[in-house]
Design a protein that fits this description.
100 residues, mainly alpha
Length: 100
C-alpha cells in the first residue's frame, strides 16, 4: 500500500515520472529491508522464516514506518494540490435567463 500511495500522491503533486520514481523507491527500500532481515536471521530447517524481535525492530519496522510516513505525506500533499488545481479550474454555472 505504501508504494501505491506514494506513487499516486507524487503523481498528483509532481507528475507521472515522479510518481513512478517514488513508488519504485519505496518498493526497493521495502524489499531491501526484508532481504537484510532474512540475511541476518535466516530460515528454519523446514524453510520457514525465523522470527527475531530485535532484528525485526532493526531491519523491517523502521523502514516500514518510514515508508508509511512518506506515503501519507505524499497523499496529503498531492491531494491538496489536486484540490487547489480543481478549484481554480472551475467555471461559474451560467444562470438561465428569465425567458427559459
Amino acid at each position: 500500500w505504501a508504494a501505491g500511495a506514494t506513487a499516486l500522491g507524487l503523481r498528483m503533486l509532481a507528475g507521472r515520472l515522479a510518481g513512478w520514481a517514488g513508488g519504485l523507491f519505496i518498493v526497493a527500500i521495502c524489499l531491501w529491508s526484508v532481504w537484510a532481515y532474512l540475511n541476518a536471521v535466516g530460515f528454519t530447517p523446514a524453510g520457514g522464516w525465523l522470527v527475531n524481535a530485535r532484528a525485526m525492530w532493526t531491519y523491517i519496522l523502521p523502514y516500514d514506518m518510514a515508508a508509511a510516513a512518506i506515503a501519507i505525506t505524499a497523499m496529503v500533499l498531492g491531494s491538496r494540490r489536486a484540490a487547489r488545481r480543481d478549484r481554480s479550474a472551475t467555471q461559474p454555472i451560467a444562470q438561465p435567463s428569465r425567458q427559459s
